[in-house]
Input
Amino acid sequence: MPDETGRNGARRAVYAPVAPPTSAPAYPWETLEVISRATVRAIGGLGTDALGLVGLANGLGQVLGRDSSAVFKRFCDPADVRAQPGLHFSLEEGSLELFVAIEPALADTVLAGLLRQAPGIAGADLLEHPAARGFLGRVGVEAGRNGAPPVELRFHDTPPSAVAPVWSVGLSATLVLDGKPYGVRAAIGRTRGAPSPSAAEFRRLSGIPLTLPLMGGACVARRQELAMLVPVDVLLPDGGFWLSSNLRGSLALAGEASTRAVFFEIVGERSAKLVGVDDLPVVEDATMSESHETEVEQAVAGAVLDAPVVVRIEVASVSMTAADFASLRPGAVIETDQRIGQLATLRVAGREVAMGELVNVEGQLGVRIRKLLGADPAT
Output
């Protein structure tokens, strides 16, 4: 900080002007990969085992006796992948299909390596010849058997099924053989009518009894409102209930992170009929009773407390074995563990935060809090 001498000889500080801070550069949003919601749902439908097929690169290295690895690049349109020349495979008793489109240079490298010849023995139209596709298909089958974990693939010279896949994902990757990169694109599809990816999990659980909650509604609320809840407060979802005031309407069975659910129609005090699968409707702007408004206004506002969360309202539960859950089909009637609406539980991010009872607020259903669960002032 520079200074100068005043008239009386004392030094006084001279403040140099400070340049205003420059604004941070804008985040390059345009460089982010764009993924559609359909792709996200297809990934969940296919299951983690299907996407693990990229591990076939290790098996190919074992077959060729070369160092190999694969690097995932991005998701792409599976229809564009299938429009290219490539190889058809199936697994899981035909319920899962794999189509691999490889660049001609990679096909030539694989063929030349197995024949112990120098690359360049095949042209760009190699994959158009049935004999070459068959040879490369057998290489793919052996790569699956040598993969980690092993995968039992079946090669098909033509598409193994004329049925359109229920779930389908395209992906682009780089296969590296002895340090040289090659482009690979694949389309993975689960065919219509195939068992659900979770069916194997059901079979492993076998006769283990499970108790799962049934939702009667969901809404978005601010963390601040939830933090200030006390017994006798009323949560009013303002349309977030799927039940009428006489407890008729819909119940939903859904995983904590799922945006889709199995819906049931209430047909009795302790029974509901399976209707089908649909998106979970979530109504925003849930309100609390006005009796607590003054305390809410006095609470310390903060970014965390102001952040919205999804509140799931559970009004029943059902207990069956995993096998019984797996066998449910539209039209099936389930029996709940207690009368629907006898008890209401509020759940946020997988945690039960409060228990209460349903009340009628001028024709709309609400939840009167009777007990807070897991309350911790520090959180």
About this structure: Residues 112 and 119 are 5 Å apart (CA to CA). The radius of gyration is 30 Å.
